[in-house]
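Reviewer 2 asked us to include a model.

Predict the structure of this chain.
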Amino acid sequence: MATTGADTAALMAEIEIEMMTDMFNKIAATCHKKCISSKYREPDLSKGEAICLDRCVAKWTQIHEQIGHKLVAVEMSGQKEGDKTK
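Predicted model (structure tokens):
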């Protein structure tokens, strides 16, 4: 059974959703552990906790973006290499 463009697009979308969900869960767990005390004293975040969370999430998203750019560059160079060998 051959896969169609729609099947491939749906599969890619599903994989992307899984990856983003996984990234969100990792960010939430890591940044919560790093920035928020296990003893909740106030119902709201303190200024220090909020700043720590902002920085933590920014670092995760920056690294995620850099890795994405690297993967695209590697894929593009691989495709160019494949075109040369044909």
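Helices lie at 5-35, 47-85. The mean pLDDT is 88. We have added this to the supplementary material.
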